[in-house]
Amino acid sequence: MMAIKRMFNYIPTLRYSSDSYLKSGDRLKQTRIFSSQDLVEFSKLSFDANPLHLDPEFARNAGFKDRVVPGMLPGAVYASQTLHFRSPVYVEEEITGEVEATSIRESKKKYIAKFTTRCFNNTGVLVLDGEAMAVLPTLCPTKA
């Protein structure tokens, strides 16, 4: 459990409406650098021992410049999500994830929010995009 908290313990940068309620068009961003230890911990949790993620020589021989971060690490956990992996993410590469609310509706004292999702590397290259749906207990984002 500690590994999960450490792997996903990063502080988001929020940009949302001045009245502090999530609305369509609001964006939430966070930046993360995935370490070698993150890949090892994820491998233990997921039983994913793919050498592309763990062995630098294997990854180079497969045509990558370094080990490739597993596709689900730059993503996020939602009720549902579609992902399109556009470019590989490498170990120690800074990644900025961004979600933008595209629609929000109330349902049984909760909110169903649809988002576009995007991740960029430190040179601005789109590495992942898609759509996500989340069930939110409130429309008030928590400030870090």
Description of the molecule:
Pfam families: MaoC_dehydratas. Residues 30-76 form the MaoC-like domain. The structure is a single chain. The protein is of the alpha+beta class and 144 residues long. The protein has helices at 2-7, 36-46, 51-54, 56-61, and strands spanning 13-15, 27-33, 80-85, 94-107, 110-121, 126-136. It has one domain (3-7, 24-136): Hotdog Thioesterase (Thiol Ester Dehydrase, Chain A, Roll), CATH 3.10.129. It contains four helices and six strands, in the order αββαααββββ. The longest helix is centred in the N-terminal third of the chain and has 11 residues, at 36-46. The radius of gyration is 16 Å and the shape is elongated. The relative contact order is 0.20.
Order of helices and strands: HEEHHHEEEE
The stretches of 5 or more residues where confidence is low (pLDDT under 50) are 1-18
Q: CATH superfamily membership, which one?
A: Hotdog Thioesterase
Give the biggest sheet. Answer: 6 strands, antiparallel
CATH architecture: Roll
The CATH class designation is Alpha Beta
Count of strand segments: 6
Rg from C-alpha positions? 16 Å
Strand content: 35-45%
- Overall form: elongated
How are the strands of the biggest sheet laid out side by side?
A: 1-2-4-5-6-3
Helix content: 10-25%
Instruction: For the record, give the distance between the C-alpha atoms at the N and C termini, rounded to a whole number.
Output: 22 Å
Which class do the helix and strand fractions yield?
Answer: alpha+beta
What is the CATH topology assignment?
Thiol Ester Dehydrase, Chain A
**What count of helical segments does DSSP give?**
4
GO molecular function: (3R)-hydroxyacyl-[acyl-carrier-protein] dehydratase activity
Pfam families: MaoC_dehydratas (PF01575)
Protein name: MaoC-like domain-containing protein
Domain MaoC-like: 30-76
